[in-house]
Amino acid sequence: MRRRTLLAGAAAGAAGVVSLGGYRRWRTPAEPVIPDAPAGDERLEWRASAARGRTVDFYTAVPAGYGDGRGLPVLLVLHGASTTAADFPALGLGRFATDSARRGNPPFVLAGATGDRLSWRPAGADDPQRMVHEEIPAWCAGRGFDTSRISVCGWSMGGYGALLLAETFPGFVRAVAAFSPAVSAGDDVFARAGALRGVPVGLWCGTDDGRLAGVRALERALPQPKAAGSYSAGRHNFGYWSTCLPAAFDLVARVTARE
Q1: Spatial CA neighbour of 81 closest among 136, 30, 155
Q2: Mapping DSSP to helix (H, G, I), strand (E, B) and coil, where does residue 72 land?
Q3: How many angstroms separate the CA atoms of 170 and 188, rounded?
Q4: What would the pLDDT profile of 47-69 be if each residue is shown by its tens digit?
Q5: In 219-228, which positions are buried (b, 16+ CB within 10 angstroms) versus exposed (e)?
Q6: In the CATH hierarchy, which top-level class contains the domain 2-256?
Q7: In sequence order, what DSSP letters do the residues of 180-244 get, joined into one string?
Q8: Percent of the chain surpassing pLDDT 70
Q9: Strand 201-206 relative to strand 228-232, pairing
Q10: What integer pLDDT is reported at residue 27 of this predicted model?
Q11: Apex CA 27: angle with CA 26 and CA 29, to 5°?
């Protein structure tokens, strides 16, 4: 195993963020809004994934003030098609975790690995879904995280993967937060929607996003009303998804805090 440990604040500096009114914004057209909170123990490592047949980036983030995160529940993070786990530090995910705890939520750690552009589904011998279901929890347990309390979130392709993961392995996750999931009526997520009964699901999508109709249709297909989420001005980019993360983290904290 090779490891790249990220010092708190280093990732944001590398991304070229500037402080604006208590928040940090990327100098990109999408302009993600990043909380003005420090990252805690944030790491990017290389792990050998038997499920994928290759070495993958493995990301973890513990809220600042919670040491190495031992005993904390886990929120799995599934990336979209245009990013990988190596991008998570620059997206400010560790800062969002600290911000959530500072707002009074029970703390949790973030964990994610690179699944490439396979929609988090098996493709021949390459199975990123099995990596998320079997290997990432094992890697997290090795760090002392509480893998009996796992939730999952994701955006775009990762939102699709997060929903499909919960449907494929009932009881594996405690909550799902999906941002603009790449779902379409009649796909596997719709076909298995009944398996989400009893799982709190949060759905968010921008009103200027081409995925909006599919996400609204999925909400109608859920076996119970969504537990959180909204449809507000925004496009299919992390500028919009970053504004949804605090509410999603509120949902995850509330659900995973239950013993």
Answers
A1: 155
A2: coil
A3: 15
A4: 999 999 999 999 999 999 999 99
A5: beebeeebbb
A6: alpha beta
A7: S----TTSHHHHTGGGGTTS-EEEEEETT-TTHHHHHHHHHHSSS--SEEEEES--SSHHHHHHH
A8: 88
A9: parallel
A10: 34
A11: 100
Nearest-angstrom CA–CA distance, 91 and 155: 13
Domain range list for the chain: 2-256
Question: What b/e sequence results for 71-107 when a residue is b if at least 16 CB atoms lie within 10 Å of its CB, and e otherwise?
Answer: ebbbbbbbbbbebbbbbbbbbbbbbbbbbbbeeebeb
Q: Which amino acid is it at 214? A: G
pTM listed for this prediction = 0.90
In angstroms, the first-to-last Cα distance of the chain is 32
Closest CA to 177 of 93, 121, 116, 103: 93
- pLDDT bin (cut points 50, 70, 90) of residue 257 is confident
222-234 pLDDT, tens digit per residue, is 999 999 999 999 9
Query: Can you give the C-alpha Rg of the chain in angstroms?
Result: 17
3-state DSSP call for residue 96?
helix
For residue 2, give every residue at least 6 positions away whose Cβ sits within 8 Å of its Cβ, in sequence order, or none. 45, 46
Per-residue burial over 7-39, b if 16 or more Cβ lie within 10 Å, else e, is eeeebbeebebeeeeebbbbeeeeebbbbebbb
Q: Which two tokens stand for residue 170?
A: 């009932």
Among residues 137, 126, 182, the alpha carbon closest in space to that of 158 is found at 182
H helical segments located in 62-147: 93-102, 128-130, 136-142
Rounded Cα distance, 154 and 129, in Å:
13
Tokens matching residue 176: 């799902």
